[in-house]
Amino acid sequence: MKTFKIFILVAIAIVGFSFTVQQKKAAPWEIPAEYKNMENPLANDKASINKGKMVYMKHCRSCHGNTGLGDGPKAARLKTFPGDFSSAEFHAQSDGELYYKSIIGRDEMPNYEKKIPSKKDQWAVINYMRTFKK
Amino acid sequence: MCTKYHHKKAKNISIFGSIAGLFVFLLILGSSLQTIAQTDEFANDPVSGTFETGLLAETQTVVTPFAGEFELHIQHRFGLIENGLEDVFGIYSSSNIRMGINYGITEKFMIGYGYTKDFKLQEFHGKYRVFTQTESNSIPVSVALYANLAINSQDEEVFGNDYAFSDRLAYFSQVLIAHKFNDNISLQFGPSFTHFNKTDTLVEHDKFALSLAGRAKVSPSMSVFFEYDQPLNIDDMREYDSDENDPEANLSFGIEIGTSTHVFQVFMSNYEGITPQRNTLYNKNKIGDGDFLVGFNILVRF
């Protein structure tokens, strides 16, 4: 009887896992040239990083995780992997590209122009994400 | 009685002076610390996040929702903590609840509706942010005007003889002046005026009050805050000789956690009415007697 119960549990688990949707890697972004070449007007200093941390912890951390690894509490429910902000690939992007992805967004990555209305806050969060370098 | 009366008057005037003085002093101190003029391109931008949301414990703040944004509010006040474990510090005691919704029509103007369990109050309110503090302090404060109309929807007989619909109406208006000192500390001063068309026997119809509120961030998403409300029981405005029905001051203090879509506030407070005009005119819970209760506010943005 015990073996039968274990068998049933394993069967349920296998069926359950087979329906789990695997997260796909994000498709390449099409970033307008005006954003690609956009200069970050905010000095990358301690004050802006602290401000950026406040904004990040409020708006970004739930999906992107405390250290930008894409492992926040909401991340598992997303269809697309939110990205690893500590990777060399991430840091190879310009501030303007990061700005477009972070503030303008697309699909599951929402637009934050209204929720983070201050330009200073918007650029501060870019400066903070630069600290996730490995 | 007379001496006690004059003592109370003197005390009220002194509290009025103290609150206003403290706010002005802190404002000057804060501004002088930021005299290094910012010449960057953000200098004339409005400051962000003076407060987490438009509500802090029992008071409104200068913050309004974004244009097109809805805010759902759930406000809950348990009973007084005075009975200790008998009713688990008021948790099993009778409570007061308000549910409301706000909508940002523009970046600076919001309207809202809510209903409160006690006295079956239906509330309509609006807030307009006149000025917003700038990064360089060229505008040193944010200023907002707030107005609230509460309609008591209890049965007609509650209002006694000669009932008229206007007996149900009570008004609250407030000027909110706030200064963000830095990313962690903000302070707000708010003189208000309350008017009830009909009150209980020997309760005044009008009341001026002052509010001082502040918050300090202790982590990127958590803050501690306080709020103090002082009704001005001024003799020259008094309708009746007795000061027995004078409302009591309120002290609220607690913690706030803010995320992108939610704000949670858990605090201790003397106020149990939730609706500001009700609190200002009818509060009988004394700070000195420890008449505190536990309350929480939950806000969902969508």
UniProtKB/TrEMBL annotation, chain A:
Ranges of residues in domain Cytochrome c:
47-133
Pfam families in UniProt: Cytochrome_CBB3
Q: Which SUPFAM superfamilies match?
A: Cytochrome c
Signal sequence residues: 1-26
Q: Which InterPro entries match?
A: Cyt_c-like_dom (IPR009056), Cyt_c-like_dom_sf (IPR036909)
Keyword Signal in annotation: yes
Any idea which UniProt keywords this protein has?
Heme, Iron, Metal-binding, Signal
What protein name is recorded for this chain?
C-type cytochrome
Organism, scientific name: Marinifilum caeruleilacunae
Automatic annotation (TrEMBL), chain B:
InterPro entries to which the protein is assigned, alphabetical: DUF5777 (IPR045916)
TM ranges are: 12-33
Q: Does the keyword Transmembrane apply?
A: yes
Would the keyword Transmembrane helix turn up in this protein's UniProt record?
yes
Keywords recorded for this protein, A-Z: Membrane, Transmembrane, Transmembrane helix
According to the entry, every stretch annotated as the DUF5777 domain falls at: 51-301
Q: A Pfam family name for this chain?
A: DUF5777
Q: What is this protein called?
A: DUF5777 domain-containing protein
